[in-house]
Amino acid sequence: MTKDKIKQAYIEHILDKGTQPESVYAFSKKLKIKEAAFYEEYTSFPQIESEIWKGFFLDTITTAQDEEVYGEYSVREKVLAFFYTWVEVLKQNRSFILKSYEGFQKPVYMKRNIQLTDFKVAFYDYINELVLEARETKEIEQRPLPQITQRYPDLFWGKTLFILDFWINDTSKAFEKTDTMIEKSVNTAFDLLGRSPLDSLFDLGKFLFHNRRI
Which ranges carry the Tetracyclin repressor-like C-terminal domain (predicted)? Predict the structure, then answer.
Protein backbone atom coordinates (compact mmCIF):
# COMPACT_ATOMS: atom_id res chain seq x y z
CA MET A 1 0.00 0.00 0.00
CA THR A 2 2.85 2.40 0.86
CA LYS A 3 4.42 1.86 -2.57
CA ASP A 4 1.20 2.66 -4.44
CA LYS A 5 0.59 5.63 -2.14
CA ILE A 6 4.03 7.05 -2.87
CA LYS A 7 3.67 6.54 -6.63
CA GLN A 8 0.23 8.16 -6.81
CA ALA A 9 1.33 11.08 -4.63
CA TYR A 10 4.35 11.60 -6.86
CA ILE A 11 2.19 11.72 -9.99
CA GLU A 12 -0.16 14.23 -8.34
CA HIS A 13 2.78 16.38 -7.24
CA ILE A 14 4.20 16.46 -10.77
CA LEU A 15 0.80 17.40 -12.20
CA ASP A 16 0.15 20.08 -9.56
CA LYS A 17 3.62 21.60 -9.22
CA GLY A 18 5.21 20.78 -12.59
CA THR A 19 8.48 19.69 -10.98
CA GLN A 20 9.86 16.90 -8.83
CA PRO A 21 9.46 17.30 -5.05
CA GLU A 22 12.14 19.42 -3.43
CA SER A 23 13.47 16.48 -1.43
CA VAL A 24 12.57 12.99 -0.25
CA TYR A 25 12.31 14.39 3.27
CA ALA A 26 9.79 17.07 2.30
CA PHE A 27 7.85 14.66 0.11
CA SER A 28 7.67 12.03 2.87
CA LYS A 29 6.59 14.64 5.43
CA LYS A 30 3.75 15.72 3.16
CA LEU A 31 2.65 12.08 2.84
CA LYS A 32 2.91 11.69 6.62
CA ILE A 33 5.29 8.76 6.34
CA LYS A 34 8.82 8.40 7.61
CA GLU A 35 11.64 9.06 5.18
CA ALA A 36 12.89 5.53 5.84
CA ALA A 37 9.53 4.19 4.64
CA PHE A 38 10.10 5.92 1.30
CA TYR A 39 13.53 4.35 0.88
CA GLU A 40 12.13 0.92 1.65
CA GLU A 41 10.16 1.20 -1.62
CA TYR A 42 12.21 3.53 -3.84
CA THR A 43 15.78 4.81 -3.96
CA SER A 44 14.99 8.03 -5.83
CA PHE A 45 12.33 9.99 -7.70
CA PRO A 46 13.62 8.81 -11.12
CA GLN A 47 13.05 5.23 -9.95
CA ILE A 48 9.40 6.09 -9.28
CA GLU A 49 9.13 7.42 -12.82
CA SER A 50 10.79 4.27 -14.13
CA GLU A 51 8.10 2.15 -12.52
CA ILE A 52 5.37 4.45 -13.81
CA TRP A 53 6.65 4.11 -17.39
CA LYS A 54 6.80 0.35 -16.96
CA GLY A 55 3.19 0.51 -15.75
CA PHE A 56 2.16 2.23 -18.98
CA PHE A 57 3.81 -0.61 -20.89
CA LEU A 58 2.09 -3.34 -18.83
CA ASP A 59 -1.29 -1.62 -19.27
CA THR A 60 -0.64 -1.57 -23.02
CA ILE A 61 0.16 -5.28 -23.19
CA THR A 62 -2.87 -6.21 -21.10
CA THR A 63 -5.21 -4.10 -23.23
CA ALA A 64 -3.81 -5.32 -26.55
CA GLN A 65 -3.80 -9.00 -25.60
CA ASP A 66 -7.33 -8.81 -24.20
CA GLU A 67 -8.60 -8.30 -27.75
CA GLU A 68 -10.00 -11.62 -29.01
CA VAL A 69 -8.34 -11.24 -32.40
CA TYR A 70 -4.86 -10.58 -30.95
CA GLY A 71 -3.93 -14.28 -30.91
CA GLU A 72 -4.72 -14.54 -34.62
CA TYR A 73 -2.51 -11.61 -35.58
CA SER A 74 0.74 -11.96 -37.47
CA VAL A 75 3.77 -10.66 -35.61
CA ARG A 76 3.71 -7.51 -37.72
CA GLU A 77 0.09 -6.93 -36.68
CA LYS A 78 0.93 -7.60 -33.02
CA VAL A 79 3.65 -4.96 -33.11
CA LEU A 80 1.29 -2.50 -34.79
CA ALA A 81 -1.39 -3.28 -32.18
CA PHE A 82 1.15 -2.69 -29.43
CA PHE A 83 2.18 0.74 -30.68
CA TYR A 84 -1.37 1.90 -31.43
CA THR A 85 -2.50 0.79 -27.98
CA TRP A 86 0.57 2.26 -26.30
CA VAL A 87 -0.15 5.68 -27.78
CA GLU A 88 -3.73 5.44 -26.50
CA VAL A 89 -2.39 4.72 -23.01
CA LEU A 90 0.00 7.65 -23.33
CA LYS A 91 -2.84 9.94 -24.36
CA GLN A 92 -4.62 9.20 -21.09
CA ASN A 93 -1.51 10.32 -19.20
CA ARG A 94 -0.18 13.05 -21.50
CA SER A 95 0.10 15.80 -18.87
CA PHE A 96 2.33 13.66 -16.68
CA ILE A 97 4.32 12.34 -19.63
CA LEU A 98 5.07 15.84 -20.93
CA LYS A 99 6.50 16.79 -17.55
CA SER A 100 8.45 13.55 -17.23
CA TYR A 101 9.78 13.99 -20.77
CA GLU A 102 11.18 17.40 -19.89
CA GLY A 103 13.68 15.65 -17.65
CA PHE A 104 14.90 13.27 -20.37
CA GLN A 105 18.24 13.60 -22.10
CA LYS A 106 17.66 14.40 -25.75
CA PRO A 107 17.38 12.99 -28.32
CA VAL A 108 15.72 10.19 -26.37
CA TYR A 109 16.53 7.51 -28.97
CA MET A 110 20.26 8.22 -28.64
CA LYS A 111 20.54 8.72 -24.87
CA ARG A 112 20.16 6.52 -21.82
CA ASN A 113 17.39 7.76 -19.54
CA ILE A 114 17.06 6.16 -16.13
CA GLN A 115 13.33 6.93 -16.13
CA LEU A 116 12.86 4.32 -18.87
CA THR A 117 15.01 1.55 -17.34
CA ASP A 118 12.20 -0.74 -16.14
CA PHE A 119 10.16 -0.11 -19.28
CA LYS A 120 13.14 -1.05 -21.46
CA VAL A 121 13.76 -4.34 -19.62
CA ALA A 122 10.08 -5.35 -19.90
CA PHE A 123 9.93 -4.25 -23.55
CA TYR A 124 12.97 -6.35 -24.49
CA ASP A 125 11.40 -9.44 -22.89
CA TYR A 126 8.24 -8.82 -24.92
CA ILE A 127 9.89 -8.03 -28.25
CA ASN A 128 12.37 -10.92 -27.99
CA GLU A 129 9.43 -13.33 -27.86
CA LEU A 130 7.89 -11.69 -30.91
CA VAL A 131 11.18 -11.82 -32.81
CA LEU A 132 11.44 -15.56 -32.12
CA GLU A 133 7.85 -16.03 -33.28
CA ALA A 134 8.55 -13.99 -36.41
CA ARG A 135 11.52 -16.19 -37.27
CA GLU A 136 9.31 -19.26 -37.00
CA THR A 137 6.65 -17.71 -39.24
CA LYS A 138 9.36 -16.43 -41.63
CA GLU A 139 8.19 -12.84 -41.17
CA ILE A 140 11.76 -12.10 -40.12
CA GLU A 141 14.63 -13.65 -41.99
CA GLN A 142 17.33 -15.51 -40.08
CA ARG A 143 20.47 -13.78 -41.29
CA PRO A 144 23.77 -15.72 -41.52
CA LEU A 145 25.54 -13.30 -39.18
CA PRO A 146 24.19 -13.73 -35.62
CA GLN A 147 25.45 -10.27 -34.71
CA ILE A 148 22.83 -8.81 -37.04
CA THR A 149 19.94 -10.92 -35.75
CA GLN A 150 20.82 -10.14 -32.15
CA ARG A 151 20.33 -6.44 -32.84
CA TYR A 152 16.71 -6.75 -33.96
CA PRO A 153 15.30 -5.94 -30.48
CA ASP A 154 17.51 -2.83 -30.43
CA LEU A 155 15.89 -1.74 -33.68
CA PHE A 156 12.39 -2.00 -32.19
CA TRP A 157 13.42 -0.23 -28.99
CA GLY A 158 14.83 2.58 -31.09
CA LYS A 159 11.54 2.81 -32.96
CA THR A 160 9.69 2.92 -29.63
CA LEU A 161 11.68 5.94 -28.52
CA PHE A 162 11.32 7.57 -31.93
CA ILE A 163 7.54 7.11 -31.78
CA LEU A 164 7.47 8.60 -28.29
CA ASP A 165 9.43 11.63 -29.41
CA PHE A 166 7.25 12.05 -32.51
CA TRP A 167 4.03 11.80 -30.46
CA ILE A 168 5.29 14.31 -27.89
CA ASN A 169 5.75 16.86 -30.67
CA ASP A 170 2.71 15.89 -32.77
CA THR A 171 0.26 18.78 -33.11
CA SER A 172 -2.11 17.10 -35.58
CA LYS A 173 -5.76 16.53 -34.72
CA ALA A 174 -6.16 13.45 -32.48
CA PHE A 175 -2.46 12.76 -33.15
CA GLU A 176 -3.34 11.40 -36.59
CA LYS A 177 0.20 11.89 -37.87
CA THR A 178 1.53 9.63 -35.11
CA ASP A 179 -0.79 6.83 -36.24
CA THR A 180 0.45 7.23 -39.81
CA MET A 181 4.06 7.27 -38.67
CA ILE A 182 3.55 4.08 -36.63
CA GLU A 183 2.10 2.27 -39.62
CA LYS A 184 4.88 3.33 -41.98
CA SER A 185 7.64 2.76 -39.44
CA VAL A 186 6.56 -0.76 -38.45
CA ASN A 187 5.85 -1.84 -42.01
CA THR A 188 9.23 -0.54 -43.14
CA ALA A 189 10.96 -2.44 -40.33
CA PHE A 190 9.34 -5.74 -41.25
CA ASP A 191 9.98 -5.17 -44.93
CA LEU A 192 13.67 -4.71 -44.14
CA LEU A 193 13.88 -7.64 -41.72
CA GLY A 194 11.91 -9.98 -43.95
CA ARG A 195 13.27 -11.89 -46.89
CA SER A 196 14.62 -9.60 -49.59
CA PRO A 197 16.25 -9.96 -53.02
CA LEU A 198 19.61 -9.69 -51.25
CA ASP A 199 18.82 -12.86 -49.30
CA SER A 200 18.03 -14.67 -52.54
CA LEU A 201 21.27 -13.38 -54.03
CA PHE A 202 23.21 -14.58 -51.00
CA ASP A 203 21.58 -18.02 -51.21
CA LEU A 204 22.52 -18.23 -54.88
CA GLY A 205 26.09 -17.23 -54.13
CA LYS A 206 26.33 -19.80 -51.33
CA PHE A 207 24.94 -22.49 -53.64
CA LEU A 208 27.40 -21.66 -56.39
CA PHE A 209 30.29 -21.60 -53.91
CA HIS A 210 29.46 -25.04 -52.52
CA ASN A 211 28.96 -26.47 -56.01
CA ARG A 212 31.91 -24.84 -57.71
CA ARG A 213 34.14 -27.01 -59.86
CA ILE A 214 37.36 -28.05 -58.18
Answer: 78-208
**Chain centroid, CA 22 distance in Å:** 29
Residue 82 in contact with residue 70, Cβ under 8 Å?
Answer: no
pTM of the model: 0.88
Query: How far is residue 155 from each of residues 71, 75, 103, 161, measured CA to CA in Å?
Result: 24, 15, 24, 10
Domain ranges of the chain: 1-43, 44-207
Nearest partner of 169 among 178, 161, 160, judged by Cα: 178
| C-alpha to C-alpha distances, 9 to 3, 22, 33, 43, nearest whole angstrom | 10, 14, 12, 16
- Three-state SS for 93? coil
Report the chain (214 residues): mean pLDDT per 10 consecutive residues.
90 95 96 95 96 98 96 96 98 97 92 95 97 93 73 94 96 96 94 65 51 56
- What's the gap between Cα 89 and its chain centre? 12
Fold of 1-43: Arc Repressor Mutant, subunit A (1.10.10)
